[in-house]
Specification:
The structure is a single chain. This protein has one domain: Rossmann fold (3-Layer(aba) Sandwich), CATH 3.40.50.300. Helix 1 packs across helix 4, helix 2 crosses helix 10 and helix 6 runs parallel beside helix 7. It contains ten helices and eleven strands. Helix content is about 40%, strand content about 20%. Strands 1, 2, 5, 6, 7, 8, 9, 10 and 11 form a nine-stranded mixed beta sheet that branches. The two termini are about 40 Å apart.
Amino acid sequence: MSNEKCDQDSTCKSGDQEGKCSQKEKEDQSEHLIRKTMGEIKNKFMVLSGKGGVGKSSVAVNLAVTLASEGFSVGIIDADIHGPDIPKMMGVEGKSLVGRGDALLPIEAKNGIKLISAAFLLRSKDDAVIWRGPLKHSLLKQFLGDVLWGPLDYLIIDLPPGTGDEALSTAHLIKDVDGAVIVTTPQDVALLDARKSITFCRQIKIPLIGVVENMGGFICPHCKQSLDIFKVGGGEKAAQEMGVPFLGRIPLDPEMVNSSDSGLPFVANHPDSETTEVFCRIAKEWRRLLEGNNKKKAKVG
């Protein structure tokens, strides 16, 4: 490691002058870039789930599209590095990232949502990302500081299931995450893990916006009545017991799967459906609670 003093200004990307910058200088510069980039984004929030298979990414994508349809500028970080599925769900699978100077340009979907994902770095959709924690931390650092997000109203960070490296790294790097949404299904096993996600957020001091119960009743496409294939109400009960707001219950709709597989987010593909109305209500309540959290932070600050 060189002992020469770094002579680069604040526009230098961290690590560009490895022969001149000490490790601490590179870390300081990286933090500076993240603060600067994230400073242009009004609201940054995480979408988590205690376990896989609860439809967390579907909820993140459709919340993003709902916000965009209301005129907000929105970005998504696909922080599930080992299973980056957001590009397919947003209809931009197979795209490649383009640089501008030392930075990266996010991929823009048809609805104007900006997106970054490890999927854009893979040679093939069948490639596996076989990384340990430090490499994942480094990539998330780039997603936050080296991407030209520009001014955004909302940045959604879609995290992998559980409370591991990606969630910890994101919270550590951003430092002032505005809130978290926990997605669960009504089954007891999913609820057990959802409660752990709530505890995780409290321990690292991330404001909890609320819980979303996904797959909470099947809407028959013929008679339009709701059938309880799984349990219903478990997410709401867990939220009440843990003292967390309940944002709403998303019905189990077969078209949700078809839309995700075709790269057409459900709420954009079915704007007049009952499920889209649920997403609109959840987004409205979520924004209300998020604004309340931000006002509390401003008073404390």
